[in-house]
Amino acid sequence: MVEEEPPPIEWRIDGLAVDGALTMLAGREGEGKSLLALALASAVTRGGDVAGFACKPGRALIIDVENGEREAHRRVHRLRPDPEKLSYCVGPLNLSSELDLLAELLDRLESPELVVLDSFRPLIPGVDENDSRVDADLAPLRDLVRGHRSACVLLHHASKQQGGDYRGSTAIGAAVELGFTLSSKRDADPRRCLSCWKSRPAPRVPDRWLEIRQAADGSPEIVAAEAPAPADTSGENLVGQIVAALASGAQARADLAELVGEPRSQPSGAFSRALNLAVQRGAVVKPKRGVYALPQRGGALVGTQERLP
Predict the structure, then answer these.
(1) pLDDT at position 303
(2) Torsions phi, psi of 88, nearest 5?
(3) Which of 29, 83, 95, 249 is deepest in the core (most CB within 10 A)?
(4) Cβ neighbours of 266 (radius 10 Å)
(5) What pLDDT sits at residue 137?
């Protein structure tokens, strides 16, 4: 080892999955992690890329114990992997007690280049994911894919806590060699952010943005997306929108909120802070309780409506 250069990293999915290594892909329900994993597996069977992820050609095995045969059929039909290079298994499998069945399947398929396991909780039932000893079930899986030189992607649920990468004990993260979380950063935004929280073989890749949408033929399509503009934490943009909305006339608070895209009955805290900031600066005045207008110019309120005194 001292004398020889280490071999190059054998990426099966560039920046995400390495031959002979265990990757965890976490995400909350409905974020699209299963669809992303299947799209990547399909791209491996055909050769190509998904949302900028280059996929080295090879064979793929999917063990799906979560979505059921009907949903699997629908997704496979629409994504159209190479049927000669994809094996898709639907049904129960307990990796705690039946890892030998997976080993037998890998032998029978002559070590497929990519293995997708969907997902952690039903594959290891009865194990407390918050128990630090959970790595006793993941370590044999990691050793198995190392022995077969297969890139393995294990799907898991993300933590419900803000900023949580995955659900359960830190022993889960310690047992895998690469870790990613797929998440929506903002409500009603179709874009997803894929964040790397662990990469043992190589430096962590920066956040990558993608969008899951429907193609013209109705099939799901995953494409690279631009990162959203940074959030305006100072509220300056919202202050400007409030001032612009009052140019047409004084407004009651609920009407003003609606004009800048906020709910009438319960505007956000950001709206309230921006409105108070505008008043403190003198950019907006309150001619009477609950009503806002632009300040006086030449002795009159700008845009004052007849209902105001």
Answers:
(1) 45
(2) -125, 115
(3) 95
(4) 9
(5) 87
> CA angle at residue 226 from 201 to 10, to 5 degrees?
20
Structure-token match 């060699």, residue found: 177
Q: Quick one: 11-224 is in which CATH superfamily? A: P-loop containing nucleotide triphosphate hydrolases (3.40.50.300)
Which one is the CATH code of 236-302: 3.40.50.1170, 1.10.10.10, 2.40.50.140, 3.40.47.10?
1.10.10.10
User: Computed from CA positions of residues 164, 169, 174, 180, in that sequence, does the dihedral angle turn out positive or negative?
Assistant: negative
Tell me the pLDDT tens digit for each residue of 157-209.
998 765 678 999 999 999 999 999 999 866 667 899 999 999 999 999 999 99
Confidence of residue 8 (pLDDT cuts 50, 70, 90): very high
Q: b/e for 11-30, b at 16 or more Cβ within 10 A?
A: bbbebbbbbbbbbbbbbbee
Q: Identify residue 58 by its one-letter amino acid code.
A: G
Among 76, 87, 137, which residue's Cα sits nearest to residue 109? 87
The reported pTM is: 0.75
How far, in Å, CA of 195 to CA of 236, rounded?
A: 28
Task: Classify the phi-psi angles of 127: left when phi > 0, otherwise alpha if psi is within -120 to 50, otherwise beta.
Answer: beta
- pLDDT, one tens digit per residue, over 239-254 is 999 999 999 999 999 9
What are the start and end residues of each CATH 1.10.10.10 domain in the chain? 236-302
- Whether 213 contacts 32, CB under 8 Å: no
